[in-house]
């Protein structure tokens, strides 16, 4: 009705925009010829009440005061492209409008009030004049004033870096007296009140915004940690799904089943956060394509290949099992898929299909494919033509892509549309193109959902820009709306919306943004029509959160985990256990080796092209290099001491010098890892001792042949004389 006519619903045409630019140029030339600058004319003749907007009456009054001879309504109508019935300084001179807005914001941040501004800029000395002169001029002799010199030096000293100081002073000195005082700064108090309202809204939103950001981060941290855990333990997400998450062959997992599976595999993270992160389309369940879209596509193509060539998995297994062994080896499976020209990696698929953990593929491992009905898009190829046809269908039906997204595609306002919602939208619009191919072209990152960014980048960037501006200035779109809604009636008209955006410094496309948000075309916005933007996520947020999530995960890892996995599957425990007690190798070791744990026999020979008995996919299995037992050697060394005999100490051929890891284990309760040294002993001839003559043997050297060492007190002068 009447409210809808408050703004131009159809929007300005290219002809209207060109006419507005030409009129603005002519008007600026006229204002500069009369007042020197557009800003001075705005402050002196147009915006006398400092509300940053003027009506047709105010515009006509100012133009006549400056001697305009024509009809003021004609340039006013050409400049008012949105049909709001109001003009702002931006529509007349956008350059000086930006300068004036930044100067006002700088003033309210630097100065406490109008008197503080005059005091810090430096007031002129009070001139003594007669009472008659004061009465005739109407001046207050005690009024604080600032001239151009003090103004320019003052704002530069206080940090103003935007320049144009002389032009700002000339614009503030509307009377041309060479100074300005409190009467010329009435805008300051109005701007200060606006700043206080904005600051209060921002403080109120700070806690909620922080909590929302932290929730988004912890969701991603939980998902990254869970995937890292599955990758390390099972080697592939599909294999983890088959063996741990859904061993019954169901390709859809309910939340309760996910809780049980995480408990069974020993993942100690927050499963509730994991559910929120995996269920990105808010469907209430988790499918395999949400965990691993690429792996789900591999299974879907394998199922389609079997259905196309054999009909059922039982027939396919019998065809693959040519030797009738009732089990398939890796080589037989690879050869069979190669004969079918299957494009996906056969080795990876073989290990992902095995649900029992054995080395062979049984017929039971394939039966789940018969009951599975994969999504249509898993088998489709990206079709850019179909995606563009879908966009054109939206453009033809709706005035803007943002409105089309909100009305037809994203009904819940989450900025996420899964394949079911997309398919329903195509049926509702009567789209007869390649729906699955269009989806694959739009969902290029295989995230399982599409956003406005994939439909229309320009519209998405406009919403993202508005959201970032609201977050920075008010703490969120919800609190920005509270500031815009001055009357508090939960209704913001286009004039109020446009005025608030201009006053608080939003320089985006206001009219197109309002038209897109005003889905019902009522000419006003309610809170429910804008607060959904706070929950939207945009690509820049994903990049930042991903980097922070990676940093958070890296900080929780041990140095050994940060070094990355070895060439084979690495089994590591965070607490005490075999994987934490890294025992050293015993090749070429010394006497300590027999007391250490046996690690297998080794022989040296030429390496064949393929080692016998080694699976081609040995990376999924543990191997000797997965265990390092150097720490445990410190506990075994005391039981096998080594003794050195001779003049020089003999060193055992033993590795050592490894530092203990910080954490519970033998390395913490044992001495240094270097081999313990036993007490040193040296065998040398004893010195000769003098004995009693009665014990001497005739003809024998002194002290020779005695079985014991005699004490010196039995010899010498006191014992002689016989």
UniProtKB/TrEMBL annotation:
Top-level taxonomic group: Eukaryota
Region Disordered, residue ranges: 656-683
GO MF entries: calcium ion binding
Residues of the EF-hand domain: 34-69, 472-507
InterPro entries, alphabetized: Ca-bind, EF-hand-dom_pair, EF_Hand_1_Ca_BS, EF_hand_dom
Transmembrane segments: none
Keyword Calcium part of the UniProt annotation: yes
UniProt KW keywords: Calcium, Metal-binding, Repeat
PANTHER family: CALCYPHOSIN, CALCYPHOSINE LIKE
Protein name (Swiss-Prot/TrEMBL): EF-hand domain-containing protein
């Amino acid at each position: 009705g009447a409210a809808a006519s408050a703004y131009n619903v159809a929007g300005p045409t290219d002809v209207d925009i060109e006419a507005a630019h030409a009129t603005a140029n002519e008007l600026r030339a006229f204002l500069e010829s009369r007042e020197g600058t557009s800003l001075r004319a705005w402050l002196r003749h147009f915006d006398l009440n400092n509300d940053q907007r003027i009506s047709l009456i105010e515009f006509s009054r100012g133009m006549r005061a400056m001697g305009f001879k024509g009809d003021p309504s004609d340039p006013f109508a050409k400049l008012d492209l949105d049909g709001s019935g109001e003009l702002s300084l931006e529509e007349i001179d956008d350059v000086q409008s930006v300068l004036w807005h930044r100067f006002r914001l700088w003033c309210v941040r630097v100065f406490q009030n109008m008197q503080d501004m005059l005091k810090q800029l430096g007031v002129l000395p009070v001139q003594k004049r007669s009472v008659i002169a004061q009465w005739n001029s109407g001046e207050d002799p005690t009024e604080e004033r600032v001239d151009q010199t003090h103004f320019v030096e003052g704002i530069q000293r206080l940090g103003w870096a935007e320049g144009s100081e002389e032009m700002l002073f000339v614009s503030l000195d509307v009377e041309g007296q060479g100074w300005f005082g409190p009467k010329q700064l009435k805008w300051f108090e109005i701007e200060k009140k606006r700043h206080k309202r904005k600051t209060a809204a921002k403080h109120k939103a700070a806690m909620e915004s922080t909590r929302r950001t932290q929730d988004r981060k912890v969701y991603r941290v939980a998902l990254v940690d869970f995937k890292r855990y599955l990758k390390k333990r099972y080697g592939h997400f599909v294999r983890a799904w088959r063996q741990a998450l859904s061993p019954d062959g169901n390709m859809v997992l309910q939340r309760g089943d996910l809780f049980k599976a995480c408990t069974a595999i020993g993942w100690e993270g927050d499963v509730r956060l994991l559910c929120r992160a995996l269920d990105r389309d808010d469907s209430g369940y988790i499918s395999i394509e949400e965990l691993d879209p690429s792996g789900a596509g591999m299974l879907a193509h394998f199922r389609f290949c079997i259905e196309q060539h054999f009909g059922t998995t039982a027939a396919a297994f019998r065809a693959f099992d040519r030797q009738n062994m009732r089990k398939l080896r890796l080589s037989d499976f690879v050869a069979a898929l190669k004969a079918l020209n299957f494009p996906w990696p056969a080795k990876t698929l073989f290990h992902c299909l095995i649900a029992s953990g054995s080395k062979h593929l049984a017929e039971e491992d394939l039966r789940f494919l018969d009951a599975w009905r994969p999504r249509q898009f898993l088998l489709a190829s990206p079709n850019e033509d179909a995606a563009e046809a879908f966009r054109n269908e939206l453009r033809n039906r709706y005035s803007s892509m943002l409105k089309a997204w909100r009305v037809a595609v994203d009904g819940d306002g989450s900025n996420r549309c899964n394949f079911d919602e997309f398919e329903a939208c195509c049926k509702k619009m009567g789209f007869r193109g390649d729906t699955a191919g269009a989806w694959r072209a739009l969902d290029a990152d295989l995230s399982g959902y599409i956003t406005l960014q994939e439909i229309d980048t320009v519209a998405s960037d406009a919403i993202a820009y508005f959201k970032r501006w609201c977050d920075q200035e008010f703490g969120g779109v919800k609190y920005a709306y509270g500031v815009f809604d001055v009357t508090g009636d939960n209704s913001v008209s286009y004039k109020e919306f446009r005025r608030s955006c201009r006053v608080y410094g939003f320089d985006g496309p206001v009219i197109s943004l309002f038209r897109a948000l005003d889905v019902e075309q009522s000419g006003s916005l309610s809170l429910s029509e804008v607060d959904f933007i706070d929950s939207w996520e945009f690509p820049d947020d994903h990049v930042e959160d991903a980097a922070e999530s990676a940093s958070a995960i890296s900080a929780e890892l041990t140095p050994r985990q940060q070094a990355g996995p070895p060439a084979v599957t690495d089994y590591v425990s965070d607490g005490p256990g075999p994987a934490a007690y890294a025992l050293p190798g015993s090749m070429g070791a010394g006497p300590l080796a027999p007391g250490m744990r046996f690690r297998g026999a080794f022989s040296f020979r030429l390496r064949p092209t393929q080692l016998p008995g080694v699976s081609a996919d040995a990376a999924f299995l543990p191997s000797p290099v997965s265990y390092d037992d150097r720490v445990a050697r410190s506990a075994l060394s005391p039981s096998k001491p080594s003794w050195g005999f001779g003049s020089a100490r003999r060193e055992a051929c033993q590795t050592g010098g490894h530092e203990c890891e910080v954490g519970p284990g033998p390395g913490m309760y044992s001495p240094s890892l270097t081999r313990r040294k036993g007490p040193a002993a040296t065998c040398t001839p004893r010195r000769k001792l003098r004995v009693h003559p009665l014990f001497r043997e005739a003809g024998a050297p002194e002290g020779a042949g005695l079985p014991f060492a005699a004490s010196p007190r039995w010899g010498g002068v006191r014992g002689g004389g016989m």
